[in-house]
Amino acid sequence: MTSISTDNAGNRRILFMGLDQRRKTIRLGAIPMKQAQSFRDKLKNLLSARKSGLALDGETSVWLGQLSPAMLDKLATCGLIEVQQARPVPRLGEFLDGFIARRNDAKPSTKCNLEVAARRLTEFFGRERDLNSISPGDADNWALHMKGKYALATVGRTVRRAKQFYRNAVRSKLAQENPFVDVKAPQQTNAARKFFITPEVINRVIESAPDSEWRLIIALSRWGGLRCPSEHLALTWSDVDWERSRFLVRSSKTEHHEDGGMRWVPLFPELRPFLEEAFDLAPPGTVHVIGRYRDTNANLRTQMMRIIRRAGETPWPKLFHNLRASRETELAERFPMHVVTDWIGNSALIAAKHYLQVTDNHFEEAAHGDADSDARPTQKPTQQASALPRTYPQVMQKTPEISGVLRGDSTSCDSVRKPGTPRVGLEPTTCRLTAGRCYH
Questions:
Q1: What is the pTM of this model?
Q2: pLDDT of residue 430
Q3: Which residues are 25's β-sheet partners?
């Protein structure tokens, strides 16, 4: 008989008959009744398996693995589990393998990145290292080792994934603390790798492309701002709305967002000729815009570097990312930021941090100033009368016509005032101002 007892303070305890036929008690503390009932049911399964000598069912095994060391000690004291089970020693390599295997929601590229981060951890600490034996000091030493071996952006990504691994270990009761929690991850931005590709340069590169599809790949990256190659390969001819001069882009990177990773991009005049050329050359029934380079193992970067060199240019850092960043920088000067980010498919924060650039044209425009002005003003312009509030009726914003009282060509106060006119007297000392003009 297994039952739940609650004392006056609300503390729960499980009462049951042990394997030695003696009454046992496991104190759970002040927990909700629903949790106490779940614990009781799992305890029944554990008792039944121990009495029959059968293996535990999978659900109970998972529950047992999630219990705290203190609770495992209580079960071991009651003879329900072995002492070695009460104090499991999780190993770093085994835990990381299991964590990555459980990420069924992750894309292959994400899993690959997790495996790379896990390998960097096990190379330094060893696969058999106890999870709880890695101290914050050990984590600091590992971060220093990483900084001496990799670029800061790479170190930042790896530190963030190490924190992610251990956060799951702590939540799963496998680790007592996260030793990486206070390790500062370097920023993933590197201003030195930002490079603005001018229209003149990209036109020469496009002219050096070997075929129409390569011209379109480059044009979609530079003039359309698409992510290469994922958004290029997802583009179909049915996504192109020629009449409304726009096309639909599907992004696998942001498909988990509310919009499903879909956005409309204008058929910019710089881009349209290359789409039209590819459409005219495509065989009837062609589905995808990019057809010849659809192999995910195709190394577009290597071929792109050849094309750039053939054009007489030097390959720039982050070949395709900087094409996209150059386009967003241009668009940000012409359109509101919320429109630009909707077309490019990122946020204003990400755009400012990773995409927008300061170009030579910005410095030239700032240095030359307004081209229409030949000289600086030598004095402040005459102060104009302030406009009437916008809430005034429209009729009040026009010069009133007062027939029979004032002529249409009547002059203002300044023109009729004569020297020597006394400041006080029969005339009022101030003018009546109507619609920016003064009348007596």
A1: 0.56
A2: 52
A3: 15
